Amino acid sequence: MKWVYLFSKENTEGNKEMKNLLGGKGANLAEMSSLGLNVPPGFTVTTEACIDFQKAGNQISDSIKQQVQEALKEVEKVTGKVFGDSKNPLLFSVRSGARVSMPGMMDTVLNLGMNDETVEGMSELTGDARFSWDSYRRFIQMYANVVMGFNHSLLEATLEDLKDARGVDEDTELTAEDLKDLVTVYKQIILEESGRSFPTDPMDQLWQAIGAVFRSWTNPRAIKYRDINGIDHNWGTAVNVQTMVFGNMGDDCATGVCFTRDPSTGDKRFFGEYLINAQGEDVVAGIRTPAPINDESKNDSNRNLKTLKEAMGETFDELTEVYQKLEAHYKDMQDIEFTIEKGNLFILQTRNGKRTASAAIKIASDLVGEGILSKEEAILKIEPELLNQLLHPRLDPKADKKVVAKGLPASPGAGAGEIAFSSELAISLAESGKKVLLVRQETSPEDIGGMNAARGILTARGGMTSHAAVVARGMGKPCVAGCSDLVINYSAKTVSVNGKTFKEGDHLTIDGASGEVFEGLVPTIDAEISKEFANFMSWADEYRTLKVRTNADNPEDSEVANNFGAEGIGLCRTEHMFFEAERILAVREMIFAEDVMSREKALSKLLPFQKKDFLGIFKAMDGKPVNIRLLDPPLHEFLPHSEQEKNELAEYLGIDIREVEDRAEKLQEFNPMLGHRGCRLGVTYPEIYKMQVRAIMEAAVESSESNITVMPEIMIPLVALKGELAILKEDALEVIKAVFKEKGKEIKYKIGTMIELPRAAITAGEIAKEAEFFSFGTNDLTQTTFGLSRDDAGKFLPEYVGRGLMPNDPFVSLDQSGVGFLVEHAVKEGKKTNANMHMGICGEHGGEPSSIDFCHRAGLDYVSCSPYRVPIARLAAAQAALNNK
Ligand code: ADP
Ligand code: MG
Ligand code: MG
C-alpha cells in the first residue's frame, strides 16, 4: 500500500487528477511542482491513510510511519536541511486537504520542528533572532490550538496583553526579547492548563500534528459543513507536509492570496491582497489590514497602502507570469496562495476559485472567447444549481446578519418581512403595502393566497416536497421548510426559537438557498439576467436533446417560464384554480351535490372560470404545447374548515350548518392520498371531467380563432388500469366532438395519461393502447413505489439518508434503481405498443440535475419543472447530452 506521495522539482509522484487520493491541495501541489513552479518540496499522506487511521482507533500504522520517514529523508536530501537539527533545521507546515475544499473547516500548523534548540539554530542561520522567535511563538500558538485543542483565544489574549504593555499596535513591532518572553509564558500556560509540557521532540510533534489533521476530519464543524454541502463523510482528508518558507523574515518578505479574475463579478482583472513581513493566514484573519497587490485590487479600506507592484515590482511580474500559466493550465479561474521569502516567490496553493453565479457565467463565457475553453467544456463547468442565485433576489452578502435557526433550503432566494401567522393576515398586510413573511406550522392548498402575498414562507414542519416547498418553488418564492426548532403558538401569536421569542409583526429574514433564518430585516439585492447569461444558455440549448417544459397553473407563471425559455407546459394543475374566492363556493357546491343534476348545476358555474383560465394560459403559451391534468386531489381538500366558511356555505346552499358538517364527515378518508382521487373521481363522477374537457376545448378552439396556435394535451391522472383510461377517453372524445360541432371548427389535441402508480408502469404496454402520451408523475410514483407518504416521511427519511440507507431524499433526487426501473420499463413497453408515444416527466424531479440525466438516458422527450428551475433544467439537459455522448 502506498500511503505517501512526494512532491518536489526533482521527484513528484502525484498529479492534478489524483484529488481523491491526495486531496485537492496535495494533487495541485504535485501538479505545480511538475510544472516547474517554485513550490516548497514536501509530501502528501493520502486520504486512504486517514481512513486507515480512523479504523485503527486513531493510530498511525507502522507502515504509514515508515513511509513518512522515508519521504522525510528525501525532503532533507533535496533541501539540504535536517529535521530537528540544531544547526540547519528543516521546518514543516502540516496542512489538510480533502477532495473538495472545505474552507476554514480543518487547520494548518506552521513552523513545525521548532524547539528551544532549533530556534537558536534558526537565529544563527538567518542572523535574525526576532524572526526566529516570531516563528516559534506562532508555532506554539497553532500547535496548542490545532493539536492540543486549546481555544485560540487562550494564547492570543497573552499576545494582546503584551502588545498593550509595550504600547504597540502590531505584532511586527515586538522585539526578539518580547517574543522570547512570550514563548516562555505560552509554555507555562500550556503546562498549567494541560498538565503536560509542550512537546520538544520534532518527530513527536510531527506524528501528533498528522494525527490532529486526520482527526479534524471528524470535528463537529467539518461534519456540519459536509452535511450542509452534501459531501461524503467517508472520504477522509489528506495531510500535506511541506517545507516551510518564510514571509516573516523582514520587509523583503510577504505572504498573500490572489485570484486570476474577480471572483464576485468574473471580470478579467488580476486581483489580490498581501501583507509584508507576515506568515500564514494573517491576510485572511484580518490581523492587519492587507494591502492590494495592484491598483485593480484597491478598495476603500486599503487605498492608501502600497501595492505589491510598487513594493516589489520584480516579484509582482513573476507572480503575473505564474498566474497566467496556472490559469491557462487549469483552464479556469484560480485562487492562489503565495509567500515571498527574501524576494523569492513561492507558490503554496492553487485551486479553482469559488465564485458567484454571475462570475461563473462570465468567466466561462470569457474563457470560451479567449479560446481557452470549448463551448462544451464551458457548459460542463457550471453547476446547474448555481443558476438559482441568478434567478432570485438574494441576501446582500455584505450585510450583517444573525442566524436564529436553520431549516431545509426549500426554495431559494431571500425573503424578509413582518411575521404573519395566517394567510389572511399575510394578504391584508401585503395589500397595505407591507412586506410579509408567512410563518406556519405547515401550509395547505388554502394558503396559496397567503403564500403568494408573502415575500417568503417559513414552516416548522414538512420536507423538501412538502406543500410549502413545492408551491413556493413553483411561485419562485423563497421558502425555508421543516425548521423544527420553531415553536409556533398560533393563539399567542408568537414563534419561539432557541430561547428567543418573536411576535406577529416582528421581522425575520430567510435564505431559501441555505435554509437559514435571520433576525430582523436583512437587505437584499435583485437578480438580473445578464446578456452573458442569456448567451450562455443559448449554448446549452445547442447541445441538449431533452425539451424543457414548465409546471404552471396560470398565465403569470407561464410568462415567467417563457422568459426563462420554457418550451411548453408539462403540467397544468386544474385544482389550484378552484381556490380563488369566487370559485370555492361553487366547488363546494359540486362536492356536496347529492345527485348528478345538482352536480352538473354547480359544475356549469365553474365552467366559465376554468375556460377563462385556459384562455389566458393558451395565450401565454402561443405555439407551445400545454398539458392539462384533469382534477386530481381528493375532494376533502376543498372542504370548508373554519366555522365562518361552514356558515357561509350553509347559507349559500340553503342548508343547516349541521348538514354541512355531516356531509363533510362522509367525505373523510383514512388515506386520502390512496383514496377517492385522480381518475377514480372521473370514473365515479364523469360530469367533473366532462366539464373540464369542455372548458379546455372551448378555450382551445376560441383561442385558435383569434390566431393563437394551441396544442392542448389532456392528461388523466392516477390511472392503474387500461379500462379506466378507456372509459374516460371515451367520455372526453364525446365532449370534444360536441364542442367541435358547436364551434364548427376542429383543432389538434392529444389525450394521454400520467404514469404514477407501479401498476400503470408495469402494464404500460397495455395502457399505451389508449394513450398518446405518458407523463411520469414521479412524486406519486415515488410514494407508491416505496409505500411511504411524503407528508409523513420527515419523521424518518432524514435519518435514513443520514445513515446511508438511501443516498438521497428520493423526493429530491429520483431513485434510479427502483422508481427509475419502473420508468424505464414503462418507456420500453409504451414504445413497443406505440413507437410515437410522447414521454415526459412532470414530478419535482424534472428540475433536478441528476434526475434529468436519468431522464435523458431513459429516452424521455422532455422534462417539466417549476418556472424558476427552467434554466437549471436546460443546462442540466445539455450536460446530460454531453456526458452521455
Ligand atoms: P487552508 O486550507 O485553510 O487554506 P493552508 O494549508 O493553505 O490552509 O494553509 C494556510 C496558510 O498557511 C497558507 O495560505 C500559507 O500562507 C501558509 N502556509 C502553508 N504552508 C506553508 C509553507 N510551506 N510555507 C509557508 N507558509 C505556508
Ligand atoms: Mg485554514
Ligand atoms: Mg490555503
Topology:
Elements: E1 4-7, H1 19-34, E2 42-45, H2 47-55, H3 62-79, E3 82-83, E4 89-90, E5 92-97, E6 109-112, H4 116-126, H5 129-146, H6 152-166, H7 176-194, H8 202-216, H9 220-229, E7 238-243, E8 254-259, E9 271-276, H10 282-285, E10 291-292, H11 308-311, H12 313-330, E11 334-341, E12 344-352, H13 357-369, H14 375-381, H15 388-391, E13 394-395, E14 403-406, E15 408-411, E16 414-420, H16 423-431, E17 436-440, H17 448-453, E18 456-459, H18 467-475, E19 479-481, E20 487-489, E21 494-497, E22 500-503, E23 507-511, E24 516-519, E25 524-525, H19 531-543, E26 547-551, H20 555-563, E27 569-573, H21 581-592, H22 596-620, E28 625-629, H23 643-653, H24 657-666, H25 679-684, H26 686-705, E29 711-716, H27 722-743, E30 750-755, H28 758-762, H29 764-767, E31 773-776, H30 778-786, H31 797-802, H32 819-833, E32 838-841, H33 849-858, E33 862-865, H34 870-883
Parallel strand pairs: 3-4, 16-17, 17-18, 18-19, 26-27, 26-33, 27-28, 28-29, 29-30, 30-31, 31-32, 32-33
Antiparallel strand pairs: 1-2, 2-7, 5-6, 5-7, 8-9, 8-11, 9-10, 11-12, 13-25, 14-24, 15-19, 16-23, 20-21, 21-22, 23-24
Helix pairs in contact: 4-5, 5-7, 6-7, 13-14, 13-19, 19-34, 20-22, 21-22, 22-26, 23-24, 26-27, 33-34
The chain binds adenosine-5'-diphosphate and magnesium ion (2 copies).
Residues 40, 93, 95, 108, 110, 242-245, 255, 280-281, 337, 339, 348-349 line the site of adenosine-5'-diphosphate (ADP).
